[in-house]
Amino acid sequence: MTWVLRVWALLAVAFAVAVGAQPAAGQTPVVLVTRVEGVITPVIADHVGDAVAAAVDRGSEALLVELDTPGGLDPAMRAIVRDLLSARVPVIVYVEPSGARAASAGAIITMAAHVAAMAPGTTIGAATPVNAQTGEPAGDKIINDFAAYAQSIAGLRGRDQQFAADAVRQGKAVPAQQAEQLGVIDLIAANRAELLQAIDGRPVTLADGSTVTLATAAATTSDYDISGARRLLQILADPNLAFLFLSIGTLAVVYELATPGMGLGGVIGVILLVLGFVGLSVLPVNVAGLVLLALAAGLFLAEVLTPGVGVFAAGGAISLALAGLLLFEDPARVNPAVFLPTAVLVGAGSIVAGRIAWRARSSPPLSGTAALTGRPATVAASQGTTGTAFVDGAWWQLRAGVPLTAGQTVRVTGADGLTLLVEPDGTPPGEGG
């Protein structure tokens, strides 16, 4: 009978494990929801990767990614696609709200999802890669590689491969209704609730080959927001902000170098430059734009150091405007309404800074031994060519090229350390000030 008891014990343990592995009776499934909008950057890629991991760890029914993007960086897009393809939880990409788009990198990300959906009035496509130097469509080798990549993703998910190729080679983009007809996406849904109702019962095959059936009709949603630090980094990745920080920071540093003072301008300038460099680190940068930005900084410095009729400032403003035009490639372009006024204002600021610096350099010093040059003094005591005098509220040692006499009026001509160099001003002793 002992072996019978052992068999029953093993069966009881197995039953308990099986029951523990299932959701409790009546437990409502949860769909984890995160939002991705704006340019696809490494910041966004890290966030999506963490969202996929969080959905797995929390035992979520699925991960819903609500998407609205003009595209972004190829490495960031590929990182997101890898996370979606290897996810151990169903991933739904939903292009919304109406007016949103899944362009360029966003189109590939949408096709990589287990379930792809769009809201009415949205678009998908236009995935032609561009040259980082010119902003023009990339060469044939790059386009062929990217087209093959897009087709492989579409084929893996059973989506229309011809559209994937056309989106890359021809920049094709289609509205939601046509995307559904072509088989680019699975469905159109007006809102989140309608989407979760529509995909309920849909089978999904995960990376390990297992098939799960979505139970989303009665599911609740839980938001997975981007962290504060990442939100800040994503804000700094805005090309308009990056350009403003670099422009104003450059002017502040140039002015501080030309007219050193308390250092506040230099500190602010360095901070702005660092924030601008953060943007450069996560945005697609054009080398020609960087060269023009450096040229603009040099011309502004020349204007501050050698102020004239504003030729250097004008050249710097033109270089800065061209830098704004070329600094970032699509889709992270600087808005002309930002870089044109900025170039004009920074150019004008360099002219003003040059005039202020010139006045500061030409003004007499206000403190220290240099400020005493030209001042009259009365010799209080003397010994040969040296003596002492009370000047500007303090006692000073004096030295002259001729013998000095107590009561004699002298004039300060310079300083040697803490000793004032003086010469007789021609006033007889006893009559000087």
Structural account:
48% of the residues lie in helices and 18% in strands. It contains 14 helices and 16 strands. It folds into 3 domains: 28-228, Alpha-Beta Complex (2-enoyl-CoA Hydratase, Chain A, domain 1); 238-362; 369-424, Beta Barrel (OB fold (Dihydrolipoamide Acetyltransferase, E2P)). The strands form 4 sheets. A 6-stranded parallel sheet has the order 8-5-3-2-1-11, with helices on both faces. α13 (311-326) packs antiparallel against α14. The protein has helices at residues 2-21, 42-57, 74-85, 105-112, 140-156, 161-169, 176-182, 192-198, 228-236, 239-258, 264-282, 287-305, 311-326, 336-362, and strands at 30-37, 62-68, 91-95, 101-103, 115-118, 123-125, 173-175, 187-188, 203-205, 211-213, 220-223, 376-383, 386-391, 394-400, 409-416, 419-424. The radius of gyration is 36 Å and the shape is elongated.
Task: Write a concise keyword list for the protein shown above.
433 residues; alpha/beta; 2-enoyl-CoA Hydratase, Chain A, domain 1; OB fold (Dihydrolipoamide Acetyltransferase, E2P); 3 domains; 6-stranded parallel β-sheet; 5-stranded mixed beta barrel; 16 strands; 48% helix; disordered C terminus
